[in-house]
Automatic annotation (TrEMBL):
<feature type="domain" description="EAL">
    <location>
        <begin position="6"/>
        <end position="254"/>
    </location>
</feature>
<dbReference type="InterPro" id="IPR001633">
    <property type="entry name" value="EAL_dom"/>
</dbReference>
<protein>
    <submittedName>
        <fullName>EAL domain-containing protein (Putative c-di-GMP-specific phosphodiesterase class I)</fullName>
    </submittedName>
</protein>
<dbReference type="Pfam" id="PF00563">
    <property type="entry name" value="EAL"/>
</dbReference>
<dbReference type="InterPro" id="IPR019278">
    <property type="entry name" value="DICT_dom"/>
</dbReference>
<dbReference type="InterPro" id="IPR050706">
    <property type="entry name" value="Cyclic-di-GMP_PDE-like"/>
</dbReference>
<dbReference type="Pfam" id="PF10069">
    <property type="entry name" value="DICT"/>
</dbReference>
<dbReference type="InterPro" id="IPR035919">
    <property type="entry name" value="EAL_sf"/>
</dbReference>
<dbReference type="GO" id="GO:0071111">
    <property type="term" value="F:cyclic-guanylate-specific phosphodiesterase activity"/>
</dbReference>
Length: 423
């Protein structure tokens, strides 16, 4: 890659970005039983001696000039280049972060060749956070699918730093669950046991591995293992530094989940009713008789201990009445993520609620769906309007399917997420 300017001479963040003046340090990721490295996390730095050396300052400045997505691509590609230059092979796994704002931004032309080389030569796990899926669910799920399609993995970062991460995690189905360092450094908080149990339950259901961040002492190491971690990183095993040349190899690879573990989203995506009705009995009834089921599922979103994700389709804005809007606003005060879809809905149809406006001819217009996914609870009510006229709203007839099968609910939820635009 051609560097167009001197990092030390950079006077603005634009000059830093134009010069691609980003360097990468690597922190070891270790098998906790053997204490052997199994990979590295790439950590980006701006030019030394400038106000943008620290990554937080660098990205804040890039956001101010509208170039944060471009910077994110630079950071990832610099990590790939450094790993390739050090001879890192696919026995070691490279963990690379991606920022939400970059999910819909194509790779800059000058960085594209290194990206192609990385796809063919490196074993990469892309790290995401709950901010990414809450900010742009469709792009995040598409990015995760693209990673798996080329044999790369996905890690869910900072689990435990926000209760939302526990409910959003199964939607992404990460290969690696990274426990936030705060869990080790302040383990006596009441919520720590809740986070740890949810992470272990997810790992047990899926076969994912748990990685503990911030291991600095032998006590941290012992605690990490009691939290279900088999991998770890922290100063006990090594500070961020350049990769050794030639890079070491490893006999124990970070395991990745089978690529076919997440059903692919069709194009266009199947609707929740199509997904659930294809696997569960379909019955017919009136809207009045479905309403109590809907309200019960909505009430599960008000769980303060295990905040879930609540997704719903209301056909048209007129069915999202003030009373319904208030119920969803109440749910949003505790839920990890709440979104509603319908013709004529605003982007913020109620406080704390994400709205998605459907077109008049959208196939979802005929569906009434309520989907709830939490760390342990999962359910989906999926219904399709039979379109009979001459009835009151309460008499309106639907065919419907109800399921509590977790994998089926997750498939329906992922499909619905693809209709939700960026925040």
């Amino acid at each position: 890659m051609t560097v167009t300017g001197s990092p030390r001479a950079a006077r603005t963040v634009d000059e830093v970005i134009d010069a691609r003046a980003v360097t990468t340090l690597f922190q070891p990721l270790v098998d906790l039983e053997r204490r052997e490295p199994v990979g590295y996390e790439a950590l980006s730095r701006g030019p030394a001696g400038t106000p943008w050396q620290a990554p937080i300052a660098l990205f804040e400045a890039a956001r101010e000039v509208g170039r944060a997505a471009e910077l994110d691509w630079i950071c990832r590609v610099r990590a790939y280049e450094a790993a390739l230059a050090a001879g890192l092979d696919d026995s070691m796994t490279l963990f690379v972060n991606i920022e939400p704002m970059a999910l819909r931004t194509p790779c800059p032309d000058d960085l594209f060749p290194a990206t192609v080389a990385a796809q063919s030569k490196l074993r990469v796990v892309t790290e995401i956070t709950e901010r990414a899926i809450a900010g742009d669910p469709s792009a995040l799920l598409s990015t995760a699918a693209a990673c798996r399609a080329i044999g790369w993995g996905v890690a869910f970062d900072d689990v435990g730093s926000d209760p939302a991460s526990l409910a959003l995690m199964p939607l992404v189905r990460p290969d690696v669950v990274k426990l936030d360092m705060g869990l080790l450094h302040d383990p006596h908080r009441a919520e720590v046991a809740h986070v740890v149990n949810a992470a272990i339950a997810y790992a047990e259901r899926t076969g994912a591995v748990i990685l503990a961040e911030g291991i600095e002492t032998e006590e941290h190491l012992e605690l990490a293992r009691t939290m279900g971690a088999t991998l770890g990183q922290g100063l006990l095993f090594g500070a961020p530094a350049p990769l050794p040349v030639p890079s070491e190899t490893c006999g124990t690879r970070v395991p990745l989940l089978p690529a076919d573990g997440v059903p692919p989203v069709s194009v266009p995506p199947r609707s929740p009713f199509e997904i659930v009705s294809g696997a569960r009995p379909v019955l017919r009834t009136t809207k009045a008789r479905l309403a109590p089921i809907s309200r019960f599922l909505e009430s599960k979103a008000r769980d303060e201990v295990e905040p879930p994700v609540l997704l719903a389709c209301f056909q048209e804005a007129r069915f999202f009445t003030p009373a319904v809007a208030q119920r969803f606003a109440d749910a949003a005060t505790t839920a990890a993520f709440v979104a509603v879809l319908g013709v004529g809905l605003d982007e913020r149809p109620a406080s704390g609620v994400r709205g998605a406006r459907l077109s008049e001819d959208d196939p979802l217009r005929g569906e009434w769906n309520v989907i709830v996914v939490g760390p342990y609870f999962a359910a989906a009510l999926t219904a399709r309007d039979l379109g009979a006229g001459g009835m009151t709203e309460a008499e309106q007839r639907f065919e419907y399917a109800l399921t509590h099968d977790r994998e089926l609910v997750l498939e329906a939820a992922r499909a619905l997420m693809h209709w939700i635009s960026p925040a």
